[in-house]
Amino acid sequence: MSNRLDEATLRARYEAGVKAHKRQQQQRRGEVTALVIAVSTYDELARTRRVEKMAHAAQLFCIAAAFVIPNLLFMAYAL
After folding, report:
1. CA-to-CA distance for 55 and 60, rounded, in angstroms?
2. 58 and 40 within one domain
3. Gyration radius (Cα) of the chain, Å
4. Which residues span the membrane (predicted)?
5. Structural domain count, the chain
6. I need a surface site. Which of 22, 40, 48, 49 has the fewest CB within 10 A?
7. Are 55 and 46 in contact (CB under 8 A)?
């Protein structure tokens, strides 16, 4: 009994791997493009006072969550 795979099986595995790799590359390109668009749009929108206030509120919320959530988890599971 041989553990060797036939060429058709190896070819199918190779093709599946190449397709997966190309799909991941395409997804990364899309993510980079979306990031560039978001940064350029944010730069234009950040000049407005309303967006500045919303961004500041979001920052404060994240900072508060970073301090509150670990304490709540500690109280829930340790005490």
Report:
1. 9
2. no
3. 25
4. 57-78
5. 2
6. 49
7. yes
Task: Write the CA distances from 26 to 12, 17, 31, 38, integer angstroms.
Answer: 21, 14, 9, 18
Whether residues 66 and 39 share a domain: the answer is no
Q: Indicate if 8 and 21 belong to the same structural domain.
A: yes
Please write the tens of the pLDDT for every residue from 6-63: 888 999 999 999 999 999 999 999 999 999 888 888 777 777 888 889 989 999 999 9
The C-alpha angle with vertex 78 and arms to 75 and 79, in degrees rounded to 5, equals 65
Model pTM? 0.45
Q: Say whether both 3 and 39 belong to one domain.
A: yes
d(CA 17, CA 34): 26
pLDDT in tens, 49-68: 888 899 899 999 999 999 99
**Burial letters 24-54, b for 16+ CB under 10 A, else e:** eeeeeeeeeeeeeeeeeeeeeeeeeeeeeee
